[in-house]
Amino acid sequence: MRAKTAEDRRLLELLQPVAEAQGLQIVRLRLMGGTQRRRLQIMAERPADHEIDVEQCAQLSRAVSEVLDAADPIAGEYLLEVSSPGVDRPLTRLADFDLYEGLEARLETDRLVEGRKRFRGVLAGTEGENVAIDLEGEADTALIPFAWLAEAKLVLTDELLKRGARRVQSNTDTPKEED
């Protein structure tokens, strides 16, 4: 899910080492648009705290641009966009479902699961290679194979906003070392 298409996967393979060299991990990469002006969207973060600042986005953008200019893997014009995953972030790795357990999410599968493809509920972690989610109105926790997910994203709720505010507050409470 970090890369959706074969072209996205090739770009991810090319660009992930660039991100890793800067201490970052690409959360999601998508090349969007038709044949005219396309947009390459890269969401990245530090693996340790799942954050990224504006300067790191700018540095990654410059480094990625250099690699893309040299390798020229995208035909035609495109716009490069490097950003954080945001508070209502996409969930692209199995570990994300444990990390954000207890928060509301929307999941979409690439095939029917009990007659449907879209699910919304509270994440209940993982069981093996399955995502566990407590769906509204259902007594049992649903298990959805991670490999079947086409999209997954946190839902912007008061609880998610409070969690984000607590994280920002804890980051600002920590004294920074002076150079």
UniProtKB/TrEMBL annotation:
Pfam families (UniProt xref): DUF150_C, RimP_N
The keyword Glycoprotein appears for this protein: no
Domain Ribosome maturation factor RimP N-terminal: 14-88
Coiled coil (residue ranges): none
Subcellular compartments: Cytoplasm
InterPro entries: Ribosome_maturation_RimP, RimP_C, RimP_C_sf, RimP_N, RimP_N_sf
Domain Ribosome maturation factor RimP C-terminal intervals: 91-157
Domain of life (superkingdom): Bacteria
Keywords of the record: Cytoplasm, Ribosome biogenesis
NCBIfam families (UniProt xref): PRK00092.2-5
Function, in words: Required for maturation of 30S ribosomal subunits.
HAMAP family xref list: RimP (MF_01077)
Family (UniProt): Belongs to the RimP family.
Name used for this protein in its record: Ribosome maturation factor RimP
Source organism per UniProt: Peiella sedimenti
Taxonomic placement: Bacteria, Pseudomonadati, Pseudomonadota, Alphaproteobacteria, Caulobacterales
